[in-house]
Amino acid sequence: xxxxxxxxxxxxxxxxxxxxxxxxxxxxxxxxxxxxxxxxxxxxxxxxxxxxxxxxxxxxxxxxxxxxxxxxxxxxxxxxxxxxxxxxxxxxxxxxxxxxxx
Amino acid sequence: xxxxxxxxxxxxxxxxxxxxxxxxxxxxxxxxxxxxxxxxxxxxxxxxxxxxxxxxxxxxxxxxxxxxxxxxxxxxxxxxxxxxxxxxxxxxxxxxxxxxxxxxxxxxxxxxxxxxxxxxxxxxxxxxxxxxxxxxxxxxxxxxxxxxxxxxxxxxxxxxxxxxxxxxxxxxxxxxxxxxxxxxxxxxxxxxxxxxxxxxxxxxxxxxxxxxxxxxxxxxxxxxxxxxxxxxxxxxxxxxxxxxxxxxxxxxxxxxxxxxxxxxxxxxxxxxxxxxxxxxxxxxxxxxxxxxxxxxxxxxxxxxxxxxxxxxxxxxxxxxxxxxxxxxxxxxxxxxxxxxxxxxxxxxxxxxxxxxxxxxxxxxxxxxxxxxxxxxxxxxxxxxxxxxxxxxxxxxxxxxxxxxxxxxxxxxxxxxxxxxxxxxxxxxxxxxxxxxxxxxxxxxxxxxxxxxxxxxxxxxxxxxxxxxxxxxxxxxxxxxxxxxxxxxxxxxxxxxxxxxxxxxxxxxxxxxxxxxxxxxxxxxxxxxxxxxxxxxxxxxxxxxxxxxxxxxxxxxxxxxxxxxxxxxxxxxxxxxxxxxxxxxxxxxxxxxxxxxxxxxxxxxxxxxxxxxxxxxxxxxxxxxxxxxxxx
Amino acid sequence: xxxxxxxxxxxxxxxxxxxxxxxxxxxxxxxxxxxxxxxxxxxxxxxxxxxxxxxxxxxxxxxxxxxxxxxxxxxxxxxxxxxxxxxxxxxxxxxxxxxxxxxxxxxxxxxxxxxxxxxxxxxxxxxxxxxxxxxxxxxxxxxxxxxxxxxxxxxxxxxxxxxxxxxxxxxxxxxx
Lengths: 102, 631, 176
Description:
The structure holds 3 protein chains of 3 kinds. Chain A contains 3 helices and 1 strand, in the order βααα. By secondary structure, chain A is mainly alpha-helical. Chain B is mainly alpha-helical. In chain B, the strands form 2 sheets. A two-stranded antiparallel sheet of chain B has the order 1-2. Chain B has a two-stranded antiparallel ribbon with strand order 3-4. In chain B, a hairpin with a 2-residue loop joins strand 1 and strand 2. The longest helix of chain B is centred in the first third of the chain and has 32 residues, at 164-195. The chains are: A mainly alpha, B mainly alpha, C mainly alpha. Chains in contact: A-B, A-C, B-C.
C-alpha cells in the first residue's frame, strides 16, 4: 500500500490541458490543431483516472474508456474532414476557411 | 320656440360639414344656398327666439338647454349646454343678422374666386363657433368657441394662401391672439381650482361669496381674463395683428375683424362682470387700456392710405371705447356700442369692398377721388356709416351709443375726468379720419374710372345696414332727449345697470352732450378743411421734416411692430438658430449611432477564423471557471 | 513508486511541449506518442492497469497511427516545414500563452482547494472495470457504440474522393 501524491496527478492534468490549449490556439495547420485536441482529451482522462484511483472505484477508468471512444470517433471524422479540406482548399491552413461562399 | 336654441349654432356647423364633404361637387348656386342659407335660417330662428324671449320670458330671464355631457372626469362635469339671457340674445341677434347680410354679400362678391366652397365652409364654421362662444354655459365650451373663431380667422385671413404675405399675416394673427388665449386658459384654470366648477352662472354666484373685493386671487383671475380679451379684441399691447389681417377678403374683414370675433373679448368681460367688479385694479386697467388704445389707433388711422387699414385701426379704436365703458362699469353701454358698431363697421367694410372691386382692386385712397357720381349707392351708404362712426349728433345711432359711454366715463364712480377727455379727443380724431376717408374717396377730382357697378345682391345688404346704423340707436337715449332706456332695461337681468343713472342728467349732462356733439362736428369740419379745400397744404405739411417723421410713426401703428420684432421675434429666432441641430434630437440620433457602433464592434467577433473561435471558447471557459471557483 | 510518478509526469510534460512546437508533423506525432506512453505509465502506477493498456493500444496504437496515415496521404513536403516556421511567429505566442496561463492558474487554485492530497493506491483491475461497465454504465456502453457507428459512417462518407481524380482541385460539387 503506497501513497501517492494525488495533487501532482491533477496538476499534471491541468498543465497538459493548458499546453494542449496553447497548441490549439497557436498552430495554423489543421493536423496540429487536431493533435493538440488529442492532448487536451488525454489530460482530461488523466484527471478522471487520478480521481477514480483516489476513491478506489472503477468509475474513473470507465470515464476514461468513454473519453477514449469519443476521441477515436472524433479523430476519424476530423481527419476525414481534414482530407476534404485539403482537397478543397489545396492547403492545410485553417485560416483559409475563414469566408463563407455566397 | 326656445327649445330650438340648439339649432342656431348647429345649422352653420352642419353647413360647414356639408360644404367640406360635397362643396367641390355641387355647383356654385348650391354652395351659396348652403353657405348663406344656413346662416339665414339661423338668423330667422334667432329672431323668433328673441320674440319668444321678450314676449314671454322664462323664469329668471335665463333659459338653459343642456344637449349632452361633454366630459365627466375627476369631479369636473362639463356639458354642451347653452344658456340664453339678454346678453347672449343681443349677441345672437347681431351675429346672425350681420352674418347673414355679409354671407349674402359674399355670394356675389366672391363669385369669381376659386375657393368658393372653401370660403363658405370656413365662414359657416366661424359663425357656428362664434355662436357657441356666446351661447356657452361653461367656460370650457366658451374656450372651444374662442379657439374655433381663432382658427377660422387664421384660415380666412390666409384664404389666398398662394401669396406668402397672406400666410405671414394669418400666422401673425394667430400667434398674437394665442398669447391672449394662453392667458385666458390660465384664468380658467385658476377659476376652476378655486371654485371646482366651470359653469359661468355658478362662478358668478360663488365669486363674491368667497373673494373679497380687491383680493389677490380675484385680481389675478380678472387680469388673466382681461389679457385673453385683449388678444382677441386687438387692444394694446396685442393689437398688431389686426391691420395686417386686412390681407383677407373684404367680407372676412367685415364679419370677423369688425363685427364679431374682435368683440368676443368685450363679450367675455361683460359675461364675467361680477368677477371684474371684484377687482377694481383690473377695471381701472381695462379703462386705461381702452382709452390709450382708442387714441393710439385713432392717430394711426389718420395716416393710413389703404382703405381697409383705416377701417382696421378704426375698429381697434372703437373697441377701445367698449373697453373704456367696461372699465368704468358701464356694461350695457359697452354692449350697446358693440351692437351699433357691428352695424356701421360691417357697413363700412362692405361698402369699401364694393369700392375696391369697382376700381380694379385698388386699395390706395390717394389714387381714388370723386367717386360720388359713379357709385351713388356706395356713397350714400358709406356716408351713413361714416356719420354713425363719427357720432354725428341726433340722427345717427353712433351718437347715442358714444354719448352713453362718454357720460358714463364722466359720471360713474370708477370713471374720471381724464378718461372723459381721452374719449372726447378720440371722438374728434375719429370724425377727422372718417371724413378724411369720405373726402378722399368720394370728393375731389376723379382719378380713376369705375369698371363695373355693383349688383343688387351687393347693394341690398349695404342699404339694410345703413338703415340699422342710423336708426338702431333710438332704443337708448339720454335723459335730455327723451329718456329711453329700453336697452339697459332689457339687459338689466344680465348686466347690472351702471351705478349712476344711464341717462345724462342735469345740466352737467346737457353741457357734456353739447361739448361732445360739437367735437364730432368739429372733426368733420376739420376734415373738410384739411382734405378737401386745402389739400395741397395738408400734403405739404405731411412731406415736411417733422410731418414725415410723425406720419411714418403713426402709420406704422406707433412702432409696435418694430418693437416686437426687436424685442421678441429676434431673440426667439436667435435661439432657434442656436438650437439648429436640436440637442434633444441628439439623444435619439445618439442612440441610433451607438447601436451602429456596437454592431460594428461586435461584428469583429464573427471573423470566420477557427482559431479565433477556439480562443473565444477558451476565454469563456476561463470566465465560467472563475465564476464557479471564486464566487 | 513515487519517483516513477514524478519522472513520468515530467517526461509527459516535456514531450507535450515538444509536440506543440515542432514544425515537422511526423516529429510532433512521435513526441505525442512518447507523451501518451508516459501517461500510460502513470496510470499503471496509480493502480489502473486496464486503462494503461487501453491507452497504449488504442490511443497510441490506433489513433496516432491514423494520424500518421493521414499525414502520409496528404503528401506534406519540405515546403510545409518552412511554411510552419513562417506561421509560428514568436509574437503569436503571447495571446494564447496568457490565456492558457490564466486557465492554468484557475485550475491550480481549484485543485489545491480540493480534498485530494494523498492517495492510498490499490489496484482496480479489469474485472472491476468490466463489472462496472456491464452494470451501472450499461447504457453508456450502448451509446458509445452508437457514437462509434456514427463516427464510422461519417468518416467513410466524408473521406470519399469526389470526381475521378482526388487531386485536391476545387471543382463544382453536386450534392454528395
